Every structure is written in C-alpha cells, then in structure tokens.
Amino acid sequence: MTRLIEVQNLTLQFDTDEGRITAVDDVSFSLDAGKVMGLVGESGSGKSVTAKSLMKLNPGNAVYGPDSRITLHLDSGPVEVMSLKTATEMQIVRGGAISMIFQEPMASFAPAITIGKQMVEQLLIHTDMSPKQARELSIEMLNRVGISDASKRFRQYAFELSGGMRQRAMIAMALSTKPKLLIADEPTTALDVTIQAQVIDLMKDLVADFGMGIIFITHDLGVIAQTADHVAVMYLGRLVEQGPVREVIRTPAHPYTQGLLAALPHLDDLDAPLVPVPGDIPSPLERPAGCVFNTRCSKAIEGPCQREVPQFTKVNEGHKVACHLYTHEKVSA
Amino acid sequence: MSDGKPLITTRNLSVHYPLRGTLFGPKPVVRAVENVSIDIIKGSFFGLVGESGSGKTTLGRALLRAAPITRGKVVYDDGEVRYDLPEIEGRELKDYRSRAQLIFQDPYAALSPRMTVRDIIAEPLEVMGLTQSRAETDERVREIAAKCRLNLEHLRRFPHAFSGGQRQRISIARALVSSPRFVVADESVAALDVSIQADVLNLLKAIQQEMGLTFLFISHDLSVVAHICDYVAVMYLGRLVETAPTRTLFRTPRHPYTRALLSAIPSLDPDDRGKAQKLEGEIPSPTNPPPGCKFQTRCPFAVDICRKQEPELERAGKDHEVSCHRWKELMETEPQMAG
What we know:
The complex is a heterodimer. Chain A is of the alpha/beta class. Chain A has helices at residues 47-53, 87-90, 105-108, 115-126, 131-144, 150-153, 163-175, 193-210, 221-227, 245-250, 255-263, 304-307, 329-332; strands spanning 3-16, 19-32, 36-40, 62-64, 69-74, 77-80, 98-101, 181-185, 213-218, 230-235, 238-244, 312-316, 319-322. In chain A, helix 4 (115-126) crosses helix 5. Chain A is globular, with a radius of gyration of 21 Å. The radius of gyration of chain B is 21 Å and the shape is globular.
C-alpha cells in the first residue's frame, strides 16, 4: 500500500474582527492510495476547512501553525504543500493532484458557461492536451459517470441539469484530470436518498477503477458506513477518534462518537428513544479549555477534562481515541 | 384530545399551477398535487414523505390555504369550528390562520435579524390581535418560550446570538404562540446537525402531547418520520402512492417506490454494502408526467398496464392503502416485497 498524503500537526487560525479563531487544532492523519477516509463532524467542527487546507484554499486571514506539515506523495516525489507559495506553484495540487467536489453543484458551476467549456478549460490548464482531445475526454467522462446523451449535455448549462445530474457532471469534471486525491465535501447531502444511493455507488466504482484516494466529508454516519475504509471524527477543530470504519461504528470509543450514534434514528427499532447530545456546540470564540467536548460530555471527569487536552491513546490496532477516560481509568471506575 | 376523528379531511384535493402557454391550444398546467384524499386524525403526527418535486410541500401549503386549491374538498373540524377550506374568506380565514401554523425548514432564514427574540415570538399575537395588553402578550410569550426551553435572558437577545438548534426552538415558539390546533412542520429538522436534531424532535413530540396538537410532518428522511409519526403518506409526482400507520408501512411496504425509498437509506452496518435495491433514473418533471402509473419509468416491475392506466388507491390492510396495479402479485412472486 502506498502512502498518498500525510497531515501532521495541522493548526489553522483565522484573524477576525472578534479575535483569532482556532478552526483546526493539531490535526494529524494519513491516507493511502485507493482508500476512502470518512471525515465526520457537525457544522462548525472544521472538517471543510481541514480539507481545503490540503490545497491551501483558505482565505487570506488564515494563519497556519508553524508545525503544520502536509506531505503529498506524487510519482515525481513528495511535495510539501505548506511551502508552496505562488498560484503557479500551487497548480501542482489545485486541480492537478487534488480535485474537490462540493456540496451544492449548482453553486460550483459557472451559470453562464456551458458544462463542456468548463470541463475543457481545466483540462487545457492542467494537462498538455489539445482542445480536441480535451473535448473527447470530457464527453467520455460524462458517459463514464452515467450521464446519457453526453455530447448533448456537454453543450448545456448547469441550470438545464437536475440535481443528481449536476453532481455527476461535477464528479466527471473533478476526475477528468486524473487526480491522486479526491476531496468530496458533503457530495450527497443536497440529493434525494434514491439519487444519493446512485452517486455513492458511482464513487465506489470510480475508486476501484482509478485507484485514487478519497477524503469523504459528511455529517451522515450512514453514508460513512457505506463508503469509507477509515473514519476520523472531528469536534470543534480537533480529531477525537480515528479508526477502521467497522470498529468506530460498532464500538465507538469517544463519548462524542457514541453520542452521535445514539442520536441517529434507527429503523430496526422504532421504539428506541432518540438521545440527543446535550447542549449546543460552543462558539469557536469560546473554545472550552482542556478537552473541547467537556462542556457536553456526560462522562467528563471533574478536573482533568477541564484542564488537560487529551492525547490520542490506542484502543485497538489502528483505532485511536483522544479522551481522558482511557488514560485515567482508575478515576472513572 | 384524540377521539379518532379527523381534524383535516381532504377528498380529491388538487393543486394546479398554470404555465405560460402558447397562443393556441389549452394552457398547460403543472399538476403539483393531484387527487389526494387523506384523513389527519386529531392529536396525531401525520408524516408526508417523498423526493423533491413530489408535491409534499405544496400539499402542506394547500392545507394552510397558502397554495391555491384548484379542485376537491378540504374540511377542517376541531370541534369548535368547522371550515370548508376552499371557501373561507375574510374573518374566517383570519381565524383559521391562528388555528393552523407553519414551522419552516431553515431557522437561519426564518427569523428577522433585526427583531429581538421576544418580538419575533410576540408578532403573531399582535398581528392577529389575540391579546389585549402588552402585559398579556409578555405572559403568553414567556409561557410558550418556557415550553420551548428558552429562558428570559434569551428573549432580550437577537437571533444571531443563537445556534441552529436554539433558533429552531424560537421558530417553534413563534408558530405555537397563537395556540394553534394544527401545525405543518416542513422539513423542520433537515437543516440541523444530528446531535441537535434528536433534541428538536423530542421537543416537538413532547409539546404535541402536552398541547394536544395535530402535526403534518413533511420530510424526505424516512428514519426521522419512522420515529416521530403515527401515520405516513408517501407521495410521488403529486400523487399518493401509499398510506399506512407507521409501523405497518415500515414492516410491510407494498408499493415498489416505498420499498425503494426504504432500501436507499444508507445502512449503519458497514457489512451491508451493496445490498440496497437501487432505483434507476430520476423523478420525471411534473410539467411532462408519464402516462399511466407515474412511477412506471423507474419501476423495475412495470408491465403494459402500468404504462397505460393510472392505478387507484386500494385497500391493502387495516388503514393501509396502496396505488399499484401489481402489489398483490408482487407480494407472492417477489420475496423481498412480501415484507
């Protein structure tokens, strides 16, 4: 298995009028080629910001921590994303080695340019294809993602396509440059369940065919269970649990992961009460000291959880959790 | 409150919207809702599910007299008053507005950023003239706010200071302050995070039981509907395809569309991958619906009759109705349809 990307101690803050906000706090993970990593978290947990950092796509007021390191392993050798400065240097990753699919396909296509022209344009920038080759490849990709009548769709505008169709076109466009890593940010959230099932199937086929790595961002644990090999759970900018999908979903270790699973309605037991995670996500301006989850955690230990930031502990092979319950076992017993 | 009588009864309710036509020939219409007959029992949670474009929001709005009723009967009867909804006007319509309320989907768009929470919740009372003095208004606002777990300090603040879950509780308080009997909740938890969604669902259920309310709960999320609703109606292209008590519907779905919707919900079991029964294609445009059964273009079991004749709703069990030409046959020949 070849390592595709390594993220080490990624910290990202935003300078705002109200002060410096920590959006990502000391996040480390890695992904192998041909694997799907699910990044789960609620709104405000920092999952999209983390993904965008991989291409340094965050706005000008973003301040990266000095220890942050992102290493992308390409055929030509490793690339340190943090040391890329100019837009030209950045082209290696942006749209080249890394492509991204967004949640709202209507917002990610330019409304006044045909789908085909947008697909061809990026191919001309990132590859040395001729316009004719780019056109042929684009139509072939539209076909590949299950869009019927691809040469007609190629000439249409985004508004002429249905939601599911647009998301397929977005995927076709993202994959036509043959990226090593695909970041899919809530790609099925805006779709109906029946269309969501189609898009998930399509993405699984594409991983098998193209062998790329995928970072799949979602708040839906069901979607994660159906797609990911590994899961990383994020809360208020910190990773709280990481591990193989079966382990994390069947035997969640962190109280937050356990809470998320208990809050989901289960179809096989309609009488089971829905158990909300108590309280609200704190504002990023008022990040709790110690463990970020301690204000909502029913198992918080008085003292350590409010003071010390928990470090990752191994629960099982490849399964890690950042929680004091696993380091202060005598206290919790 | 619940005596088994319907609060809302519709018979062959249709909502059509005219389209810009050509100079010649009849004007084309979009049949957003077509021949819908449902009974919403007093004190129940009635779920309405379907994909986008199925007409569920339009139906909800028609029941609130917020969408034009083209044809059919809609009766509201809460024991105190009885209204023929397509007919009422003026004072009666105003009175109906205080008895039937709507909770919106997006708690970020539904609240005015320039009003305090107190003013947002009090506005319906003032507009409808339901209270005599400011003191009385304040008391009603405080009472409903407490029910929705908002405290006095919250009432003085503006919506921007609140999280999504808190905002949705403010929207709920605003909808309930006029003491309605009937509430339409249109995708009211769709914009919320999972950990908050359970909290709002539990709150809705508690308030419904406490105040004896009747809810029409519109959602595309079948697992949420399964947990909160007593009855469920499934819509497709403006038509009802199946209605049943929740448990019956989830245990023995009879319509191929209901079946497909259920199996498209991503399972939490990672070893369940690829077992789902996949539905091909997408919902057709309501401006150009297919002939016969509206679902025939995507149905794996469609035969000749489905392409020619539109099926009627028929009885499939106690309170269970399904509109499919082949449901009985499929129950015998398709083991996964037997449920």
